[in-house]
Specification:
By secondary structure, the protein is of the alpha+beta class. The chain has 10 helices and 19 strands. The protein has 2 domains: about 10-240, Vaccinia Virus protein VP39 (Rossmann fold), CATH 3.40.50; about 260-360, Double Stranded RNA Binding Domain (2-Layer Sandwich), CATH 3.30.160.690. The protein is globular and about 65 Å long. One of its GO terms (cellular component) is cytoplasm.
């Protein structure tokens, strides 16, 4: 193991912290020790913060070794690539495109995977290679298959894995397609989020096998779902916690600017003015965003902040037919709304919020997902209780 430049952070400290949280179990401790995180982190990183989608400025190991080491052995995510590798710094790029996940999340997902000796596992998204190394130690490299769409990331991860003594099957390719050459698998784990479970994952998993993946609607909010595969076309299971992963590249979307919705006119254009007593602050937490997103499909929010603490919540549909704005002002009890197009997007959000409130504000642990042929449906408490979709024109 490499010598580290500070005594205040390191593998032993992080292992202790993760075990105290209950994220790292005795089953995975040997793998943690055999595949220390620092062996799988590149020299140039953007440290993250626990529970937040924010990155600090670039850190270069050769220039700031103590800062680099402390970031590696903090329970927080680390961004390792921006804009599919097209941005290298200094500073930050526009969109983070690869990372080393927060260790608590890594081991929570591995625990949910429930691997047993002899299991064959497909990992979607090699990233830095750390997850594949942990699985390789636990199951043996011959039983681990990992696929990465980014060629540079895949090559770098393969070298790190081999240098550390792990030799899983490492493939460059589209993770949405799975890896049929290694199928069938006992377990599939994804380290990128999806809004629709690729059917190839289901088809390549044995009946009774498990798929663990981040899943989230277009609107926002995202959780880890643990699906049990019934056959080549169906799977069902509960959400086991919240998450915030980068989207699988095959499922990325490009969103139109607000100017496309206004059609060259100045806001509020033809927007219909009303007032609401539901504060935009009430619909911004992750669980309620998830509940709204399931009920209000093909729509997404964006916040436009102002220096005085107020902001405008924009809502837009993916079909570029409808938009809405809600102006939040601190201390106010009513808020100005403008809506345009065939969909009254704020009204849909309000209806979805009221449903969530009536269900006693469920968190992720009460939701589940059923994959059945070409259909997917999110349910509350049990599979025969689907979450409704808000009626629209």
């Amino acid at each position: 193991m490499d010598a580290h430049p500070t005594e205040t952070a390191g593998p032993e400290w992080l292992a202790s912290a993760l075990m105290e949280k209950g994220a790292l179990t005795s089953e995975w401790l040997p793998a943690f020790n055999a595949a220390p995180r620092h062996l799988f982190i590149p020299d140039v990183i953007w440290p993250g913060r626990a529970g937040m989608n924010r990155q600090d400025d670039r850190v270069i190991r050769s220039e700031e070794p103590e800062v680099w080491w402390s970031a590696v052995y903090r329970d927080a995510p680390i961004t390792t690539q921006w804009d599919d590798g097209n941005y290298t710094g200094p500073g930050k790029g526009k969109i983070p495109s690869s990372s080393s996940s927060m260790p608590t999340m890594v081991f929570s997902m591995l625990d949910a995977l429930g691997v047993e000796d002899g299991h064959r596992v497909l990992e979607i998204g090699t990233g830095t290679g750390w997850n594949a190394a942990l699985l390789s130690h636990r199951l043996g490299s011959d039983n681990v298959f990992t696929i990465e769409v980014d060629e540079t990331s895949a090559r770098d991860a393969r070298k790190r894995l081999n240098d550390a003594g792990f030799h899983p099957v490492s493939v460059i390719g589209d993770g949405a397609e799975g890896y049929p050459d290694g199928a069938p698998y006992d377990r599939v784990i994804a380290t990128a989020s999806v809004g629709r479970v690729p059917r190839q994952w289901v088809a390549q998993t044995k009946p009774g096998g498990i798929i663990v993946t981040p899943w989230g609607p277009t609107y926002g909010g995202e959780g880890i779902v643990r699906l049990t595969v019934a056959d080549s076309e169906s799977a069902v299971g509960p959400f086991v916690g919240s998450s915030a992963f980068m989207r699988l590249r095959a499922q990325r979307t490009t969103r139109k600017h607000v100017r496309e919705y206004l059609e060259g006119r100045k806001w509020p254009a033809d927007g219909r003015r009303t007032m609401t007593d539901l504060s935009p602050e009430s619909v911004g937490d992750w669980p309620v965003m998830f509940a709204i997103g399931v009920q209000v499909p093909e729509a997404f929010p964006w916040m436009e902040p102002y220096d005085d603490g107020s902001y405008t919540l924009w809502l837009r549909d993916t079909a570029v037919t409808s938009w809405a704005t809600v102006d939040f002002v601190p201390g106010h009890e009513e808020f100005e709304v403008y809506q345009s197009g065939p969909r009254n997007l704020w009204d849909e959000v309000v209806a979805a919020y009221l449903w969530w409130d009536e269900q006693k504000r469920p968190g992720f642990e009460r939701f589940g997902l059923t994959v059945d042929g070409n259909r997917e449906r999110v349910w509350l408490d049990r599979p025969d209780n689907p979450v409704p979709v808000v009626a629209r024109p």
